Amino acid sequence: MKVLTRTALAIAAVLSASPALAQSCTFSMSDMNFGFVNLASGSAVDTTATLSVTCSNPLSLALSIRICPNINAGSGGQSGGIRRMLQGSNILNYQLYQNAARTTSWGSVTQPALGSPPPIDMALPLLINTTSRTVYGRINAGQASAARGLYLSSFAGAETSFTYTSFTLLAPSCSSVTQNPTQVPFNVSAAVAPTCIISAQNIDFGSHGVLNTAVNATGAINLTCTTNLNYSVALNGGLSNSPPATRQMVQAGASITYGLYRDVNRTNVWGSAAGEIATGTGTGSLQTLTVYGRVPAQNTPAPGNYSDTVVVTVNY
Questions:
Q1: Closest by CA position to 255, among listed 263, 246, 264
Q2: What is the pLDDT of residues 149-160, one digit of tens each?
Q3: Residues 24-43 pLDDT 10s
Q4: In sequence order, what are the residues at sequence separation of 6 or more whose Cβ sits closer than 8 angstroms to the Cβ of residue 223?
Q5: CB under 8 Å to 231, separation ≥6 — which residues?
Q6: According to the model, what pLDDT value does residue 215 have?
Q7: SS3 for 244?
Q8: Distance in Å from the first CA to the final CA of the chain
Q9: Can you tell me the distance from the alpha carbon of 241 to that of 233, in angstroms, rounded to the nearest whole number?
Protein backbone atom coordinates (compact mmCIF):
# COMPACT_ATOMS: atom_id res chain seq x y z
CA MET A 1 0.00 0.00 0.00
CA LYS A 2 1.35 3.35 -1.02
CA VAL A 3 0.92 6.14 1.45
CA LEU A 4 1.10 9.70 0.20
CA THR A 5 2.09 12.27 2.75
CA ARG A 6 1.58 15.82 1.97
CA THR A 7 2.63 18.94 3.85
CA ALA A 8 2.49 22.63 3.25
CA LEU A 9 5.45 24.95 3.06
CA ALA A 10 4.68 28.27 4.61
CA ILE A 11 6.27 31.16 2.82
CA ALA A 12 6.33 34.51 4.52
CA ALA A 13 7.92 37.84 3.94
CA VAL A 14 8.19 40.95 6.03
CA LEU A 15 7.94 44.24 4.17
CA SER A 16 9.35 47.22 5.94
CA ALA A 17 8.25 50.70 4.88
CA SER A 18 11.08 52.90 3.65
CA PRO A 19 10.75 56.66 3.97
CA ALA A 20 9.43 58.33 0.83
CA LEU A 21 11.61 60.99 -0.68
CA ALA A 22 9.34 63.93 -1.45
CA GLN A 23 9.75 67.48 -2.57
CA SER A 24 10.30 69.94 0.29
CA CYS A 25 10.89 73.66 0.73
CA THR A 26 12.58 75.88 3.27
CA PHE A 27 12.12 79.63 3.70
CA SER A 28 13.82 82.63 5.26
CA MET A 29 12.71 86.25 5.51
CA SER A 30 14.85 89.27 6.28
CA ASP A 31 13.61 91.83 8.79
CA MET A 32 11.99 94.94 7.33
CA ASN A 33 13.71 97.89 9.00
CA PHE A 34 12.61 101.37 7.93
CA GLY A 35 15.39 102.86 10.08
CA PHE A 36 15.09 106.43 11.37
CA VAL A 37 12.18 108.08 9.61
CA ASN A 38 11.25 111.74 9.33
CA LEU A 39 7.46 111.97 9.29
CA ALA A 40 7.14 115.70 9.95
CA SER A 41 6.59 116.43 6.26
CA GLY A 42 3.69 113.97 6.11
CA SER A 43 5.31 112.00 3.27
CA ALA A 44 5.32 108.21 2.92
CA VAL A 45 8.50 106.24 3.68
CA ASP A 46 9.46 103.11 1.71
CA THR A 47 11.77 100.15 2.25
CA THR A 48 11.99 96.45 1.35
CA ALA A 49 12.66 92.99 2.74
CA THR A 50 13.61 89.76 0.97
CA LEU A 51 11.93 86.36 1.04
CA SER A 52 14.25 83.47 0.08
CA VAL A 53 12.97 80.03 -0.98
CA THR A 54 14.88 76.77 -1.47
CA CYS A 55 13.08 73.64 -2.67
CA SER A 56 14.56 70.14 -3.04
CA ASN A 57 13.51 67.41 -5.45
CA PRO A 58 15.32 64.18 -4.40
CA LEU A 59 13.71 61.95 -7.05
CA SER A 60 14.02 64.49 -9.89
CA LEU A 61 10.28 64.25 -10.40
CA ALA A 62 8.92 66.27 -13.29
CA LEU A 63 6.63 68.22 -10.99
CA SER A 64 6.16 71.85 -10.10
CA ILE A 65 5.56 73.35 -6.69
CA ARG A 66 3.09 76.09 -5.81
CA ILE A 67 4.11 78.11 -2.75
CA CYS A 68 1.64 80.36 -0.93
CA PRO A 69 3.46 82.80 1.43
CA ASN A 70 0.69 83.92 3.78
CA ILE A 71 1.60 86.96 5.90
CA ASN A 72 -0.93 88.05 8.52
CA ALA A 73 -1.20 91.35 10.38
CA GLY A 74 1.67 90.84 12.83
CA SER A 75 1.67 91.63 16.52
CA GLY A 76 0.75 95.25 15.79
CA GLY A 77 -2.58 94.15 14.36
CA GLN A 78 -4.55 95.84 11.62
CA SER A 79 -7.31 98.38 11.11
CA GLY A 80 -9.37 98.25 7.94
CA GLY A 81 -6.73 96.18 6.17
CA ILE A 82 -3.88 98.50 7.18
CA ARG A 83 -1.12 96.95 9.26
CA ARG A 84 0.18 98.71 12.35
CA MET A 85 3.45 99.00 14.26
CA LEU A 86 3.15 99.84 17.93
CA GLN A 87 5.08 101.74 20.57
CA GLY A 88 3.01 101.23 23.67
CA SER A 89 -0.33 102.83 22.80
CA ASN A 90 1.17 104.82 19.90
CA ILE A 91 0.36 103.56 16.40
CA LEU A 92 2.22 103.80 13.10
CA ASN A 93 0.33 102.61 10.02
CA TYR A 94 2.14 100.75 7.25
CA GLN A 95 1.53 98.14 4.59
CA LEU A 96 3.29 95.28 2.79
CA TYR A 97 3.06 95.04 -0.99
CA GLN A 98 3.79 92.59 -3.78
CA ASN A 99 4.99 95.19 -6.32
CA ALA A 100 7.38 98.14 -6.41
CA ALA A 101 4.55 100.54 -7.27
CA ARG A 102 2.96 99.50 -3.96
CA THR A 103 -0.49 99.04 -5.42
CA THR A 104 -1.08 95.34 -4.60
CA SER A 105 -1.04 94.37 -0.94
CA TRP A 106 0.68 91.21 0.29
CA GLY A 107 -1.74 89.39 2.54
CA SER A 108 -3.06 86.04 3.67
CA VAL A 109 -5.89 83.65 2.86
CA THR A 110 -6.86 83.69 6.56
CA GLN A 111 -7.02 87.51 6.77
CA PRO A 112 -8.38 88.57 3.36
CA ALA A 113 -8.77 92.22 4.40
CA LEU A 114 -4.98 92.47 4.11
CA GLY A 115 -4.97 91.21 0.52
CA SER A 116 -3.95 87.89 -1.01
CA PRO A 117 -0.61 86.05 -0.88
CA PRO A 118 1.29 86.11 -4.19
CA PRO A 119 1.74 82.49 -5.33
CA ILE A 120 5.26 81.40 -6.24
CA ASP A 121 5.54 78.56 -8.76
CA MET A 122 8.77 76.60 -9.14
CA ALA A 123 9.52 73.91 -11.70
CA LEU A 124 11.82 71.29 -10.19
CA PRO A 125 13.61 69.25 -12.86
CA LEU A 126 16.74 69.69 -10.75
CA LEU A 127 17.56 68.35 -7.32
CA ILE A 128 17.59 71.81 -5.71
CA ASN A 129 16.13 75.09 -6.88
CA THR A 130 16.16 78.51 -5.24
CA THR A 131 14.37 81.78 -5.78
CA SER A 132 13.64 85.02 -3.93
CA ARG A 133 10.94 87.66 -3.82
CA THR A 134 11.06 91.28 -2.70
CA VAL A 135 8.50 92.38 -0.12
CA TYR A 136 7.81 96.10 -0.51
CA GLY A 137 6.98 98.10 2.62
CA ARG A 138 5.54 101.58 3.01
CA ILE A 139 4.81 103.71 6.07
CA ASN A 140 1.65 105.51 5.09
CA ALA A 141 1.70 109.24 4.36
CA GLY A 142 -0.05 111.75 6.62
CA GLN A 143 1.38 110.58 9.95
CA ALA A 144 3.25 113.69 11.04
CA SER A 145 1.52 113.42 14.42
CA ALA A 146 3.29 110.12 15.26
CA ALA A 147 5.26 110.39 18.50
CA ARG A 148 8.99 109.79 18.33
CA GLY A 149 10.48 106.45 19.34
CA LEU A 150 10.80 102.84 18.17
CA TYR A 151 7.77 101.12 16.62
CA LEU A 152 7.60 97.35 16.08
CA SER A 153 5.43 94.55 14.74
CA SER A 154 6.54 90.92 15.15
CA PHE A 155 5.65 88.15 12.72
CA ALA A 156 6.50 85.23 14.99
CA GLY A 157 4.45 82.07 15.34
CA ALA A 158 1.17 81.87 13.44
CA GLU A 159 1.55 85.36 11.98
CA THR A 160 3.07 83.63 8.93
CA SER A 161 2.07 80.34 7.30
CA PHE A 162 3.92 79.46 4.12
CA THR A 163 2.19 76.47 2.53
CA TYR A 164 3.14 74.53 -0.58
CA THR A 165 2.16 71.53 -2.70
CA SER A 166 3.28 69.86 -5.92
CA PHE A 167 1.28 69.83 -9.15
CA THR A 168 1.69 68.69 -12.73
CA LEU A 169 -0.37 70.82 -15.09
CA LEU A 170 -2.85 73.09 -13.33
CA ALA A 171 -1.66 75.03 -10.28
CA PRO A 172 -4.11 75.01 -7.37
CA SER A 173 -5.38 78.23 -5.84
CA CYS A 174 -3.75 79.37 -2.62
CA SER A 175 -7.07 79.03 -0.81
CA SER A 176 -6.80 75.27 -1.33
CA VAL A 177 -3.09 74.89 -0.58
CA THR A 178 -2.91 73.95 3.09
CA GLN A 179 -0.12 71.37 3.02
CA ASN A 180 3.26 71.76 4.72
CA PRO A 181 2.52 74.93 6.74
CA THR A 182 5.78 76.59 7.74
CA GLN A 183 6.22 79.54 10.09
CA VAL A 184 8.74 82.13 8.91
CA PRO A 185 9.43 84.73 11.63
CA PHE A 186 10.59 88.29 10.94
CA ASN A 187 10.11 91.80 12.34
CA VAL A 188 8.99 95.13 10.93
CA SER A 189 10.37 98.19 12.73
CA ALA A 190 10.80 101.94 12.39
CA ALA A 191 12.25 104.66 14.60
CA VAL A 192 10.40 107.95 14.33
CA ALA A 193 13.10 110.60 14.56
CA PRO A 194 12.59 113.86 16.48
CA THR A 195 12.25 116.43 13.73
CA CYS A 196 11.17 120.02 13.12
CA ILE A 197 10.43 121.55 9.73
CA ILE A 198 10.61 125.33 9.74
CA SER A 199 9.84 128.24 7.45
CA ALA A 200 9.63 131.99 8.05
CA GLN A 201 7.38 134.78 6.78
CA ASN A 202 9.13 138.12 6.18
CA ILE A 203 8.30 141.27 8.13
CA ASP A 204 7.49 144.32 6.01
CA PHE A 205 7.18 147.64 7.84
CA GLY A 206 5.91 149.30 4.66
CA SER A 207 6.69 152.77 3.25
CA HIS A 208 6.86 155.89 5.43
CA GLY A 209 7.84 159.52 4.89
CA VAL A 210 9.07 160.21 8.38
CA LEU A 211 9.57 158.04 11.47
CA ASN A 212 8.12 160.38 14.08
CA THR A 213 5.85 157.63 15.52
CA ALA A 214 6.35 153.93 16.14
CA VAL A 215 5.57 151.55 13.27
CA ASN A 216 4.42 148.01 14.01
CA ALA A 217 4.37 144.94 11.76
CA THR A 218 4.32 141.17 12.18
CA GLY A 219 5.85 138.13 10.60
CA ALA A 220 5.60 134.43 11.39
CA ILE A 221 7.70 131.35 12.02
CA ASN A 222 5.98 128.14 10.93
CA LEU A 223 7.00 124.86 12.56
CA THR A 224 5.91 121.27 12.22
CA CYS A 225 7.60 119.24 14.96
CA THR A 226 7.27 115.65 16.10
CA THR A 227 4.52 115.10 18.67
CA ASN A 228 5.61 115.78 22.28
CA LEU A 229 8.97 117.15 21.11
CA ASN A 230 10.10 120.18 23.13
CA TYR A 231 11.75 122.90 21.06
CA SER A 232 13.10 126.42 21.39
CA VAL A 233 13.34 129.15 18.76
CA ALA A 234 16.09 131.78 18.81
CA LEU A 235 16.59 134.84 16.58
CA ASN A 236 20.08 136.23 16.08
CA GLY A 237 21.01 139.90 16.02
CA GLY A 238 20.75 140.31 12.27
CA LEU A 239 23.57 141.41 9.98
CA SER A 240 24.69 144.01 12.51
CA ASN A 241 24.58 141.47 15.40
CA SER A 242 22.67 143.99 17.50
CA PRO A 243 20.62 143.49 20.69
CA PRO A 244 17.02 142.29 20.09
CA ALA A 245 15.35 145.72 20.51
CA THR A 246 17.97 147.69 18.56
CA ARG A 247 18.59 145.65 15.43
CA GLN A 248 19.53 147.61 12.33
CA MET A 249 18.02 147.77 8.86
CA VAL A 250 20.64 149.36 6.60
CA GLN A 251 20.99 151.01 3.22
CA ALA A 252 24.11 152.70 1.85
CA GLY A 253 25.66 153.37 5.24
CA ALA A 254 22.41 154.65 6.82
CA SER A 255 20.27 152.61 9.21
CA ILE A 256 16.86 152.27 10.85
CA THR A 257 16.58 150.82 14.34
CA TYR A 258 13.93 148.15 14.96
CA GLY A 259 13.13 145.42 17.46
CA LEU A 260 11.58 141.93 17.40
CA TYR A 261 9.35 140.66 20.21
CA ARG A 262 7.47 137.57 21.36
CA ASP A 263 4.29 139.36 22.50
CA VAL A 264 1.79 141.74 20.97
CA ASN A 265 2.64 144.45 23.54
CA ARG A 266 6.27 144.37 22.36
CA THR A 267 7.66 144.00 25.88
CA ASN A 268 9.34 140.58 25.65
CA VAL A 269 12.26 140.81 23.24
CA TRP A 270 13.05 137.88 20.94
CA GLY A 271 16.74 137.09 20.74
CA SER A 272 19.13 134.25 21.37
CA ALA A 273 20.16 134.74 25.01
CA ALA A 274 18.55 133.14 28.06
CA GLY A 275 15.11 134.59 28.71
CA GLU A 276 14.80 135.87 25.11
CA ILE A 277 13.94 132.57 23.39
CA ALA A 278 10.46 131.23 22.49
CA THR A 279 9.67 127.66 23.53
CA GLY A 280 7.00 125.13 22.67
CA THR A 281 6.06 121.46 22.26
CA GLY A 282 5.43 119.77 18.93
CA THR A 283 2.02 118.41 18.00
CA GLY A 284 2.87 116.84 14.65
CA SER A 285 0.79 119.58 13.02
CA LEU A 286 1.67 123.06 11.80
CA GLN A 287 2.28 125.59 14.57
CA THR A 288 2.69 129.28 13.86
CA LEU A 289 4.66 131.62 16.11
CA THR A 290 4.01 135.30 15.50
CA VAL A 291 7.02 137.61 15.43
CA TYR A 292 6.07 141.12 16.55
CA GLY A 293 8.20 143.84 15.01
CA ARG A 294 8.46 147.53 15.90
CA VAL A 295 10.32 150.47 14.43
CA PRO A 296 10.40 153.05 17.26
CA ALA A 297 10.15 156.76 16.59
CA GLN A 298 13.59 158.05 15.53
CA ASN A 299 15.38 160.45 13.25
CA THR A 300 14.46 159.69 9.66
CA PRO A 301 17.44 158.69 7.49
CA ALA A 302 17.77 159.28 3.75
CA PRO A 303 15.05 157.78 1.55
CA GLY A 304 15.64 154.25 0.29
CA ASN A 305 14.94 150.58 0.88
CA TYR A 306 16.26 149.42 4.25
CA SER A 307 16.60 145.74 5.10
CA ASP A 308 18.14 143.20 7.45
CA THR A 309 18.43 139.40 7.57
CA VAL A 310 17.72 137.54 10.82
CA VAL A 311 18.63 133.87 11.24
CA VAL A 312 16.07 131.62 12.93
CA THR A 313 17.51 128.70 14.92
CA VAL A 314 15.32 125.87 16.25
CA ASN A 315 16.80 123.60 18.92
CA TYR A 316 15.14 120.32 19.94
A1: 246
A2: 999 999 999 999
A3: 999 999 999 999 999 988 99
A4: 196, 197, 198, 231, 233, 280, 282, 286, 287, 288, 289, 314
A5: 196, 223, 225, 279, 280, 281, 282, 314, 315, 316
A6: 98
A7: helix
A8: 123
A9: 17
Q: Is 159 helix (H, G, I), strand (E, B) or coil?
A: helix
CA atoms within a 13 Å half-sphere pointing along the CA-CB vector of 152: 9
User: For strand 187-192 and strand 32-37, is the pairing parallel, antiparallel, or unpaired?
Assistant: parallel
Whether 69 has a pLDDT exceeding 50, the answer reads: yes
Label residue 20 exposed, middle or buried (CB < 10 Å: 0-12, 13-18, 19+): exposed
Task: Label the pairing between strands 215-225 and 196-201.
Answer: antiparallel
Angstrom distances, CA of residue 178 to CA of 133, 166, 195, 200, 254:
21, 12, 46, 60, 85
CA 263 to chain centre: 38
User: d(Cα 266, Cα 294) in Å, to the nearest integer?
Assistant: 8
Residue 30's SS3 state is coil
The backbone torsions φ and ψ at residue 114, rounded to the nearest 5 degrees and listed phi first, read: -80, -10
Beta bridge partners of 225: 196
Among 149, 166, 175, smallest CA distance to 39 is for: 149
CA-CA distance, 109 to 134, in Å (whole number)?
Answer: 19
What confidence tens digit (pLDDT) does each residue in 268-294 have?
Answer: 999 999 999 999 999 999 999 999 999
The length of the chain is 316
Contact (CB, 8 A) for 44 and 139: yes
